[in-house]
Amino acid sequence: MIHLEKRPQPSQVWTVITPVLAVILTMIVGGMMFAALGKPPLEAIRTIFWDPLFHPQFAGYSRPQLLVKAGPLILIAIGLSVGFRAGIWNIGAEGQYIMGAICGAGASLALYPSDSILLFPMMVIAGALGGWAWSMIPAILKTKFGTNEILVSLMLVYVAESILASVSSGLLRNPDGMGFPGSRNFQQWDAAANKELIANTGMHWGVVFALIAVIAAYVLFARHIRGFQIRLSGEAPRAARFAGVNPNRIVIFCLGTAGALAGLAGLFEVTGPAGQISIDFNSGYGFTAIIVAFLGRLHPVGILLAGLLMALTYIGGELAQLMLGVPGASIQLFQGMLLFFLLATDVFTNYRIRFGQGAA
Amino acid sequence: MKRRTLLASAAALSLAAGSAFAQDKVKAGFIYVGPVGDGGWTYEHDQGRKAVEAELGDAVETVYQESVPEGADAERAITQMALSGADIIFTTSFGYMDPTMNVAAKFPDVKFEHATGFKRADNVSVYSARFYEGRAIQGHIAGKMTKTNKVGYIASFPIPEVIRGINSAYLHAKKVNPDVEFSIVWAYTWFDPAKEADAARALIDNGADVILQHTDSTAPQAAAQEAGNVITFGQASDMAEFGPVPRVSSIIDNWAPYYIDRVKAVMDGTWESTDTWDGISTGMVGIGEISSAVPADVKAEALALKDAIAAGEYHPFTGPINKQDGTPWLAEGETASDGDLLGMNFYIEGLTGDVPN
After folding, report:
1. Which of B48, B138, B166, B232 is 20 to 30 A from residue A44's alpha carbon, by CA?
2. What is the ipTM score, two decimals?
């Protein structure tokens, strides 16, 4: 007989091992899947994990792209992790990301064709405020009426998507676009563009903000009383109350932080890599960031690494499609496996396996 | 910084060009917005790719990437394809327009072909099909066959191509059935079987007995089959597996001849930037077999309409036509200019509702 026994304390060792183990298991089972599809498994795994970094022909382009892809994921995931640590489940980062992009882009388009150097900072602030305001809806509903933030924040994603569809074919539509939906292209408007800061590094303002967010979150949790209060609220809500932590303030702070960071990510994406507000410029970053947050164990440094790993599977997956002709869906399956194995191996953090006759 | 970017891309370019010369085969790349198994839009583009392989054999190598989101990811996918040594790249969705232009500027020796867009460059051609010609025939059959006088239309995005299709279908349905009404649902997706099925069911529940779709999956066909007494038309692909009812005919995109031509032109070194907009006459727009569910006289009329369009004797947008608000658009006998059609962002008189704005 094999049975699980709860550990008195979550295992420190397993907390570190599980992400690595999950990646290895994904490689093995993913390799089997590629073999079943009639593709060389080792080559497929190598194409996904190795080629984006070291392939002589592609790496020069795809290495910077890793940062481009990881930047928004990390920025959003850091914000989400703050709430998740406190047991506040903001599932609506995608909506906050969209609203940040719309507000930032809208604020600048109202001033087109301004070339003030203050334009971009103003857009950054508008983007953060847009995301923040959108996250305040579930926050205030939760603190005033006790509604469930999971449902409210998630449903607001669909509202945000509808607003996006509306503004990209109406309010923010490019007047020179022959009636096609989509805003002006920010890449062609220097004062409002989020350009590469150093050529061919992929380093743009969104990546810079992501790194700042990682450091800030690290300091928050390691050094700051607010970080302690957040952890306490998540791990022992009653104790937190007795310690004088105001749960409503924690809700407002956590959702607000997540919303502002997601809004920033949206603004940097729309003015940089995506280029324009269009009906589907949001590539699901807000949802993928949830995976990144958990893959990174809600720890700032873990999230940094997890964001880069996730970006690697995206870019490597695209290369595998191109070079080996594997179907697109198999790449999604591959990414799904990663989360699945992470959750599966996670059991060992809190439980250990006992062989033989159990006490129960 | 601008200059440095330029230099770096020139370096990347010479690298790509070098690898292209190293191999004799011409490499043709395709970027798809949906999965190759969508049974509609992307499926037909992929059939075109396979036709290129079949026709040109060993002289050509094709690669493709499916389900590429329109946005930041598209630019990367196209760049990687160019870096991998592709000589010609077909980007097969409207949303790839700006990414295609950006990548094309970095790879002046690679040829690009963007479907359904309007921006061109020395190494960027655009191509599309006059689907509205097929819509005219659909509208005619729909107007004749509806018993409830309610036609449901599942539209994707409010872009001129889609609006043109709605107007053309409505115009020709109205011509044969003055009582016909169109209900239009905007799905804001090209491919989402669940959403498309929901839209179809909602329209059918509201009394529609004809469902037209400008989305790519077969889900509306399945929903109509389930409901019974509803007819549909295959979109982009023949969707013959749903015939003879609900699917009574279809608009088939046939990209194969165009793709073969263009890849050959790259081989011969005769490729030039062009703007192609072909319809029924060249076969780029095909009309699928009209099934036995359609009465013989209606079928004969529909085929006559098709022949008239193919021969250039009849233009689906021939005046008098007013805009929705009653202002005149085309005078008696006047036909729509391509410019008007390409930028069409208004409904014609008689349609209800607004173009989402």
Report:
1. B48
2. 0.83
Cβ of A58 within 8 Å of Cβ of B80? The answer is yes
- A132 in contact with B, Cβ within 8 Å: no
Residue pair B245/B293 in contact (Cβ under 8 Å)? The answer is yes
Is A328 in Cβ contact with B84 (below 8 Å)? no
Digit-coded pLDDT (tens) for B116-145: 888 899 999 999 999 999 999 999 999 999
Which residues of chain A from 49 to 68 reach within 8 Å of chain B, CB to CB?
Answer: 57-58, 60-62, 65, 68
Model confidence band, residue B73 (pLDDT cutoffs 50, 70, 90): confident
**pLDDT value at residue B14:** 44
Stated pTM of the model = 0.83
The answer to whether B263 and B23 are in contact (CB under 8 A) is no
Q: Read off φ and ψ for residue B354, nearest 5 degrees.
A: -115, 150
Facing residue for B79 by CB, picked from A61, A281, A314: A61
Amino acid at B224: A
Q: What is the three-class DSSP state of B323?
A: strand
Residue A350: its pLDDT value, please? 83
Interface of B with A in 129-158 (CB under 8 A): 157-158
Residues of B within 8 A of A276 (CB-CB) are: 98
Residue type (1 letter), A294: F
pLDDT for A59 equals: 87
CA distance B159 to chain A (A): 5
Chain position carrying tokens 């389900």? B67
**Residues linked to residue A353 through DSSP beta bridges, in sequence order:** A4
Domains recognised in chain B with CATH numbers: 2-129 (3.40.50.2300), 131-253+285-342 (3.40.50.2300)
Widest CA span in chain B: 68
Determine whether the interchain pair A57/B19 forms a contact, defined as Cβ–Cβ distance below 8 Å: yes
pLDDT score for A3: 84
Reduce the DSSP state of residue A88 to 3 states and report it.
coil
Q: Residue A63: pLDDT above 80?
A: yes
pLDDT band, very low/low/confident/very high, at A358 (cuts 50, 70, 90): low
Q: Compute, in degrees rounded to 10, the torsion defined by CA atoms A277, A278, A283, A289.
A: 30
DSSP state of B26: E
Q: Decide if pLDDT at B182 tops 90.
A: yes
Spacing of C-alpha B6 from chain mean position: 35
Partners of residue B118 in chain A, C-beta under 8 Å: 178, 180
Q: Would you call B78 an interface residue with chain A, using a CB distance cutoff of 8 Å?
A: no
Q: From CA A316, how far away is CA A167, in angstroms rounded?
A: 34
Q: How far is A92 from chain B (nearest CA, A)?
A: 20
